[in-house]
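fyi for ur records
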Amino acid sequence: MQDKPSAGPGVIALPPLILAAAIAAGLILHFFWPAKFLPRALAVPLGILIVLGAVAIAALAVLEPEEAYLERHFGEEYLRYKAKVRRWI
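which gave:
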């Protein structure tokens, strides 16, 4: 006899939370064991640019233009699929 399939994939945490945990782990590691690859005068502005770029990419991902396209292209079929599937797979 087979068990019923679970309601979801059994994901422990949403992908954004996993990313946040990885960033926090990196910051904690840096606090206790800093790695110096670049001079501070170059590292800080470069770091700020990288963080701003990452925030921009994340913001664009949340606006989900792909989902709007899929709704227009596939209509009701895509809406039914979207209702059955969690956003963060």
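The two ends are 28 Å apart (CA to CA). thats all i got for now
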